[in-house]
Amino acid sequence: MMTNKRFIRMSTALLILIVLMSGCTHGQRSETIVIPSTEENHTSDQGSRSFQVKTIYRLPASVTDNDEMLGWSAPDTVIGLFKIVRSSERMKRNLQRISIPYENLTNVQNVDINTHSLELSPDGKYISGITKTQDGDSLTVISLSDGQHKEVARFNSREQLLVQKLSWSSDSRYLSYLFTDSNSRQESLGIYDTDADITKDYHLTGFENTGNITSVKISDDGRSMLFTMVQSSRKSSVVLGIINGSEVDVQYEHQTGGEQIAWLNNEQFVYLGTEGTLYEYDRRNSELSVLLENVERFEFSQNRKYIAYSLNEKDSIFAGKLQGKNILYEEPVYHGINPSQMLWSPDNNSLLVNGEKIYSRLSRTPMVASPSDHQPFIIKFQ
């Protein structure tokens, strides 16, 4: 038996040697042949599997479209701004959280009725908001762990006007906002650095002919911004701005189909073009790539590896994996909804969905655990 095994190994080695020698007759060439072990062959790649729905959680009937779902404060906890009507009192708004199995709301803290435009940081630790006072507006950051309020900027209505465009960087370090000079109407961008506890202002240059700014997304390095603009002709565009000293200069502009934009990293960003084309732009080489077609709405996971999206004239939510310039799997994970909001959980394993329920035009099978109109629900993946 040992002799046979030795003979097989010698024959295999001789065969490989013959193949390599025959390759030399066609010119010099270097090749690397990798023979994976049995253990490597059976190692499962968790990132390569398609999306499979494990559970669909319907949020309580008390949660309606009048409430505002702010996002995830933990992998299994959603936080929102809910309206509460008290006897002999006017309607108040409370920050409340709801955790798995998403049946009961728990109060976090009351919200001043003069505070609006709340934005939850992606890490779920802070909420920013604008509070109106007699003298003007103040920008406040609220810590959800201890309830402390920190004023990071104040605006005198006679000199400056705070524009309601608050946005966190995806790593929750930077908070950006827009404000204008009351006299010159010059627009500026403010950035609050939570790590350094510093606020800096930058003038916007070259934006005079681009239209009105409707949203801002700041990169994780705090040096680049994506602006969505609307012209007088109602055409929309995305504008890339770069900090240059005390100013923000225009570096790139392209027509879009709306306000949906997202950073993939500090060098690449994604936006929805006209006719539903989802583009990826790499500013290092000015390369523009098409990721998907006919997209109506999209949302990337916090690690930027996965995407949830809906398609025009279809009533399904799809989930896929971003790999290079491609979206893999593209699995339908829910039918019968026109989503207006989709938010991935911090562990990238659940999707909060809000939108209007519609009857499926694609499948004859009945829907399972379909929420009522405008009632949020959560899809948990396996």
UniProtKB/TrEMBL annotation:
Keyword Chloroplast among UniProt keywords: no
Segment forming the signal sequence: 1-27
InterPro entries: 6-blade_b-propeller_TolB-like (IPR011042)
Keywords noted in UniProt: Signal
Gene3D superfamilies reported in the protein's UniProt record: TolB, C-terminal domain (2.120.10.30)
Keyword hit for Signal: yes
Lineage top rank: taxon: Bacteria
Descriptive protein name: WD40 repeat domain-containing protein
UniProt source species: Paenibacillus dokdonensis
